[in-house]
Design goal:
Two copies of one chain form a homodimer. The first copy, chain A, contains 13 helices and 13 strands. By secondary structure, the first copy, chain A, is of the alpha/beta class. The longest helix of chain A has 19 residues, at about 155-175. Chain A starts with a strand and ends in a 6-residue tail after the last strand.
Chain lengths: ~400, ~400
């Protein structure tokens, strides 16, 4: 019987999820796995037996280097949530039969909350049926909202991207010297980690954003307008970073106030973005100023051309640590990052029980936000600044960043 | 009497307009100008006598290097259009009195169409009153719509940015393998140069965008839906680049069809963006697919972290050429770029009469667009590809790109 490993990617793409894939792949190979398979489109693809042999696709060092610089999920992703095995044992029977056929001994899943739930369920079911397969979770999310890990791979690069483009947006917004309010919408439904990263822009060459609105703080439109009016008396150009997830005191998303929010697609999904656009229109109607909404949109999660080398290195490292632990017999665990110190920044990996991570959300501590709820305090900057340090230079060919070729 | 030069920046910001400022400044200094002044917020600031002494602000080589890497207009900009001097001679009298007080011999204005109109008017008035001041235009616009120059500084970097992020957006959009239509809105009211740059994304590692909609081609919403439906039968993920300026056959902007377009700000300006959002909603209502609008917004003009070294070099070069010409006695001219060959790419500068440039617009040649009006043809790629070559590495300090410090 062969000793094979399998790895999948799930949830939203990031700039560094492929570095974790590289880490799992290389560590499994070095530890002697016969084959390292990749699930195409995660667990959903696996259920259709869509897998590839990663050893064939990643056959050279330049493949690995390009993979680290390729954003989004190289293997494809899915949003499939495994049902409870008490209700749908058939799904589990099918999955384990496929894993048996592929002679899998080690199973890795790279993702966020939902992916850790998948690892939790698979390892519980595996234990119940006495399966020898080892299940390990590898954390990934730009949202930085996983529990029990100091931070998540993907956050550092997204935070760096936000810092870089905020500086550029602030430069652009001040150019005419006339009244202007720029409202920048940042991802993060319930946790404000990414929006908070806008605070990193401030420095000797940049006065920084003027207001930061996190989803952790209830949003009052009247107070918002008052703040903007007051700020614009001090400076003509006001730049605001607002989370797409800011909510009214009654719990509704601010973007639900927009007419546009009522657009429904063919599946009945309500369009929930447009927070910046709504607020921009609100300010334009109420104050004597021009306004502009800017949505960072998916660029903040797929900007492979601006990544943090610290983040890429850690993403690779958690992948390797997951393989090491699984080969040493661990199962039902997630690799977490544990910070040892801020200055100098030192971080190591540790294992945490998967059932303590799955389906929970870590929010920005309220005591890292100032009293007037407009800005981040030094503890946040001390936390976030090390995560954006250093660069992994993109490989430019013929004028554009080069990625790994897809099959 | 001193021999002084003055330089101003006008119109929308670009990533490389400061490289042209550096070119003008260094060439004027080397040729012996006593002072090189900068107008703060262009001609409008000059009317208020708001100027700075650039020699004091740019005192070291590192200042010049940071200036080249700083997006937006270092001196600030304006949208002020000089009135006709037959109607408002007082404005001209005031301006020339200020220039006389500053002992200006050479006057440079970096900008697009409107800025060349300013140079045209000033040089005409100067000639009429027998002023010895030399007036030179330095081209700048991401829109690439100036006549008589092969291309404009600013376009290459914006085109490169669009190529880079399109590749990333395409990777992100394909990740789930399910039906998805991503509509990316690109700047350009009347000329489609920037939207056409989305065609650069295609390569061995990227299948490219599926549809390109330029403002040069009348837009039919029904045919658009037909095309999208047909494309999605061939591939689940469809990525479309659409100009903010696409117009219906009756001449209205497509975005005017949106409810949102009727938002009016306190000055009575109608909000004219939202083309991608409108089309995205249209597709979602009519086809069985999820959709997502992405606006590249101001990032495409201020992304100093992705610039073309070719573009930066040429931006610097046109600034220097303008100074050289003015010092040699030329006036009422714009420096143009003249392409000598595509492969190898060779380009030089020449002088063109300012009155032949001002207020005209250069559009994308229709024979560079394919018959079905969905994609660009090889002549466009041969034209645009050289302009995005090579990089000017950003200077990252403490995790973020560093810019020159403003006063």
């Amino acid at each position: 019987m062969a000793n094979n490993a399998i790895v999948g990617q799930s949830g939203g793409p990031t700039s560094v999820i492929n570095a974790s894939l590289a880490g799992v792949f290389q560590a499994c190979q070095m530890r002697g796995a016969d084959h390292v398979y990749g699930m195409l489109h995660g667990i959903q693809g696996l259920l259709d037996e869509k897998v590839c042999d990663l050893g064939q696709r990643l056959s050279s060092f330049i493949d690995i280097e390009l993979l680290k610089r390729t954003p989004s999920s190289f293997l494809g992703s899915c949003r499939y949530k495994l049902p409870d095995f008490k209700d749908h044992e058939d799904v589990y029977e099918k999955l384990f039969k496929i894993l048996e056929k592929l002679e899998i001994r080690w199973f890795f899943y790279i993702g966020g909350n939902d992916s850790m739930d998948t690892i939790n369920k698979l390892s519980q079911y595996g234990k119940q049926i006495g399966s020898p397969i080892r299940f390990m979770g590898v954390p990934k999310t730009i949202d930085n909202d996983l529990m029990l890990t100091d931070h998540t791979p993907g956050y550092g690069s997204a935070a760096k991207y936000i810092g870089v483009v905020m500086k550029e947006i602030i430069r652009d917004a001040t150019v005419y010297g006339t009244n202007f309010v720029t409202i920048v919408e940042v991802m993060g439904r319930n946790a404000g980690w990414l929006t908070a990263a806008a605070a990193l822009a401030r420095g000797e060459d940049c006065e920084g954003v003027d207001l930061i609105c996190l989803p952790e703080i209830p949003f009052h439109t009247d107070r918002f307008l008052e703040k903007v009016e007051k700020m614009q008396k001090e400076r003509a150009s006001v730049v605001i970073a607002v989370s797409e997830g800011v909510k009214l005191p009654d719990g509704r998303f601010v973007c639900e106030l927009s007419d546009d929010a009522r657009t429904v697609d063919a599946f009945g999904h309500i369009n929930l973005n447009g927070t910046a656009r709504y607020l921009s229109n609100l300010v334009a109607r109420n104050l004597p100023t021009r306004t502009r909404p800017v949505e960072l949109s998916i660029l903040q999660r797929c900007a492979g051309h601006v990544t943090s080398r610290t983040d890429i290195t850690e993403a690779f490292q958690v992948g390797g640590a997951a393989a090491k632990a699984a080969f040493e017999g661990e199962t039902a665990k997630m690799v977490a990052l544990k910070r040892l110190s801020n200055d100098p920044y030192q971080c190591t990996t540790e294992l945490v029980d998967i059932d303590r991570v799955a389906n929970l959300e870590k929010k920005v501590p309220l005591d890292w936000i100032n009293d007037t709820r407009t800005d981040m305090l030094p503890p946040f900057l001390a936390y976030a600044r090390p995560l954006i340090q250093a660069e992994l230079t993109p490989i430019y060919i013929n004028g554009l960043t080069q990625h790994i070729v897809e099959e």
